[in-house]
Amino acid sequence: AQKVTQTQTSISVMEKTTVTMDCVYETQDSSYFLFWYKQTASGEIVFLIRQDSYKKENATVGHYSLNFQKPKSSIGLIITATQIEDSAVYFCAMRDNYAQGLTFGLGTRVSVFP
Amino acid sequence: DMKVTQMPRYLIKRMGENVLLECGQDMSHETMYWYRQDPGLGLQLIYISYDVDSNSEGDIPKGYRVSRKKREHFSLILDSAKTNQTSVYFCASSLGTHQAPLFGEGTRLSVL
Hints:
By secondary structure, chain A is mostly beta strands. Chain A has strands at residues 3-5, 10-14, 19-21, 24-26, 32-39, 45-52, 60-61, 64-69, 74-79, 88-96, 103-104, 108-113. In chain B, strands 2, 4, 5, 6, 9, 10 and 11 form a seven-stranded mixed beta sheet that branches. In chain B, strands 1-3-8-7 form a four-stranded antiparallel beta sheet, with no helix packed on it. The N and C termini of chain B lie far apart (36 Å).
């Protein structure tokens, strides 16, 4: 069974700095898909970025990038040049070929201060 | 406009009443999902639908059933709601099972 663990409950950063958050996963499958979402204060869940397990290059979208360390079953999210609007809860999720849907971690709350 | 729409957004029901949560999408996505979100438990998959009348149980299907008679519409039904079904319910859809699901805005259900 797949499992996703986010150990950091909350992180506080100053605006315009870089924040990194961790995620480790478990799967028996050799092929899987990793996703990051954010949930805003209004409750909206927004897809940010994905990494396919067979791709060696770290995915990058805008000011979001991933640190994919396959041997460690780790997929960290890096947000550069943070803005106040980046304050949210960030969820890591995965899907392998055996699961019925995405399995989510419990989230990391990021607070960006001016 | 690519969107997943959930109705209603807020709902209060009494224990034992039936509940119908509705979800629609305008992207012809084959796969649709129902999740619930609770503090400390995160997002948990209730049901997944791979297309019309092709539904599978997720991790916590007990007490729920679903209906998908049209590709763009996926309903979650609670027969005789229980207080422990108080939660925020999210519907999502994706083009395939390996694509990132797009989430609706959620339905906050309170069962008293």
